[in-house]
Amino acid sequence: MKKLLVVCGFALLGLQNASAQDEDSWAPRHVAIGVGVGSTGISIDASTTFSRWLGLRAGVDIMPGIKVSKSIDLGLQEKTKGQTIEQMNNHIDELNAKIDNYNMALPAGTSPLQRIDRSLLPNRNLPDNLDLQGKLSNTTGHVLIDVYPIKGVSFHATVGAYFGPSKVITVYNKGQEDLPEGLTPINQWNNAIIAANKNPSSLLYTQVVQPNNLRMIGAELGEYFITPNPADNGNVEANIKVNGFRPYVGIGFGRAVPKSRVGVQVDLGAQFWGKPSVNIPTYDKTTGEYKTEAIDAGKAGDDVGKYLRFVSKFSVYPVLNLRLVGRIL
Question: Distance of CA 185 to CAs 45, 193, 211, 231, 235, Å?
Answer without folding.
Answer: 48, 12, 22, 13, 11
